[in-house]
Amino acid sequence: MVGGCAHDPAPVEQLRLTEQALVQARAVGPEASAELLQAEDKLRAARTALTAKDHREARMLAEQAELDARLAEVQALNERHQAQIDDLTRRIERLRQQLGEAR
């Protein structure tokens, strides 16, 4: 394992990208989503692996955490958009009923 560390640089940039993805996901969705909690756990594990100089493991965990955070963000945005669609559908239906009554 020691020989592998020499070839695998510390995933500093990947950790930065992962942290940024988590910030974005928190900004748009509920902080208690399963995917977001998973991302936070994996980021903590990545930092632990980095401290242990297991750069390969740290990179893999950070990449997985980034993907989990991005999934959480997309799901939150999807839920928000679906709520907007549902609201517009209700408004359209109300307008149709009003137009039908006006005839």
Distance from N terminus to C terminus (CA atoms, Å) equals 80 Å
Total beta strands: 0
In the CATH classification, which architecture of the domain at 2-73 applies?
Answer: Up-down Bundle
Largest sheet: none
**Strand percentage:** under 5%
Helix and strand sequence: HHHH
* CATH class bucket of the domain at 2-73: Mainly Alpha
Structural class: mainly alpha
Question: Which bin fits the share of residues in helices?
Answer: over 70%
**Mean pLDDT, as a whole number?**
91
The total of helices stands at 4
Taking all Cα atoms into account, the compactness measure Rg is: 22 Å
Specify the overall morphology.
Answer: rod-shaped
Give unreliable regions as ranges.
none
**Fold-level CATH name of the domain at 2-73:** Substrate Binding Domain Of Dnak, Chain:A, Domain 2
Task: Characterize the structure shown.
With 103 residues, the chain is mainly alpha-helical. The protein has a domain at 2-73: Up-down Bundle (Substrate Binding Domain Of Dnak, Chain:A, Domain 2), CATH 1.20.1270. The chain has four helices and no strands. Helix 2 runs antiparallel to helix 3, helix 2 packs parallel to helix 4 and helix 3 (34-51) packs antiparallel against helix 4 (55-102). The longest helix is centred in the C-terminal third of the chain and has 48 residues, at 55-102. The chain is rod-shaped and about 75 Å long. The N and C termini lie far apart (80 Å).
